Amino acid sequence: MGIVTADVSLYLGQPGAQNRMAPCVGQIVVRGVGASGQTHQGQKCLDLEVEALPASQQLTVDRNHVQTPLTVGWLQLDVVLRTNQVPQRTIGRVLIDDAGMLPIGASRSGPGRWLWELLPEDVERVEMARAVQPAAPIYFQVDVRGIAKLLDPNGNTVDVVSIRGATSQLVVELSQWERLLQQLDYSLPPSQPALAGLPSLEHPSWTDATARLQNARSHHRSGEDYDALRECLSALEAVVHAPYNKESWTRRLASLPEQKAEALAELFSGIATYCNRVGHHRDRSERNAVGDLSPMPLDHWEADLMVAAAQFVLTYAIRLRSAGTLVEPPPPTAPTETSSAETTVS
């Protein structure tokens, strides 16, 4: 699953300014994040591989002036993952079965496996949070708390205590996050389909457009905004040659009333023009310090809007084509040949 990505130290009670001397009972280490195809109630989950490590000084109890070692056995264990940016958002649910409640004793315990259930809206929250640094790794805060029983070597309960973990960070490299999204079958952010009605979502043109814009969304998630717009332009070019030219659309919409054909041509060519002039072409006059033409200014939120707009516009164009409304124009009529010789009347 990868290298160690999070290391949570566990303390009796709640460590803080008022309890800095709380005894450390051990650590829970997250070894990696992966996907093995496991599901919970039909929802695909990620896997968190974990291991429990003992503290440097094991907990003991005084029995007849003899220090007897204690083992931590969990009665309840709760783990919450949150975004790193403020305001923090809880991301998914961590599901822990009995096998994942690793005891903490004098030696390592594990590895164990927790299920991390992520809904599409959870993934979109992560994407929103990483927009500030779109090319950086993904960071999550890991909070651990629980109720445990302290057991002597004979398995007898000595005490029941609350345990709280010092907040740690889970780090997921960007390339690994992209692979995990594919294994979760995540494509469109849920907020985009929410803007369309069922007749649009259930039409094959929506699915077709989603697949055609997959590269654009991947570039956008990676912070490659110019590449995202170029991919949007490429998807439109696959439908109509030179989609940034209004006439390219008008000639193919000849069966519609002229007013509507003009409106559609301006809509489609306008989106393509933006992608072309902002995402593809550079400034034609301004040069930077080394003499290169400068790219057009482009913010991540602008690319977000345009990739979303391309989904709807491309769906519309594909649907018009499948309905026979957006068609190739007829070939130009060949000019009528006339004889250069004049007929002589005798």
What does this structure look like?
There is one protein chain. The chain is of the alpha+beta class. It contains 9 helices and 14 strands. The strands form 3 sheets. Strands 1, 2, 3, 4, 7, 8, 9, 10, 11 and 12 form a 10-stranded antiparallel β-sheet that branches. It is elongated and about 115 Å long. Mean pLDDT is 89; it is low at 339-346.
In total, the number of strands is 14
| SS-derived structural category | alpha+beta
What is the mean pLDDT?
89
Q: Report the uncertain regions.
A: 339-346
List keywords for this structure.
single chain, 346 residues, alpha+beta, ten-stranded antiparallel sheet, two-stranded antiparallel sheet, 9 helices, 14 strands, disordered C terminus
Gist?
30% of the residues lie in helices and 29% in strands. The chain is α+β, with helices and mostly antiparallel strands.
What is the topological layout?
Blueprint: E1 6-12, E2 24-34, E3 39-40, E4 43-54, E5 60-63, E6 66-69, E7 71-83, E8 93-95, E9 109-117, H1 120-129, E10 138-151, E11 157-165, E12 168-172, H2 174-183, H3 198-201, H4 204-212, H5 214-221, H6 225-237, H7 246-250, H8 258-280, E13 282-287, E14 293-295, H9 300-322
Antiparallel strand pairs: 1-2, 1-11, 2-4, 3-4, 4-9, 5-6, 7-10, 8-9, 10-11, 10-12, 13-14
Helix pairs in contact: 4-9, 5-6, 6-8, 6-9, 8-9
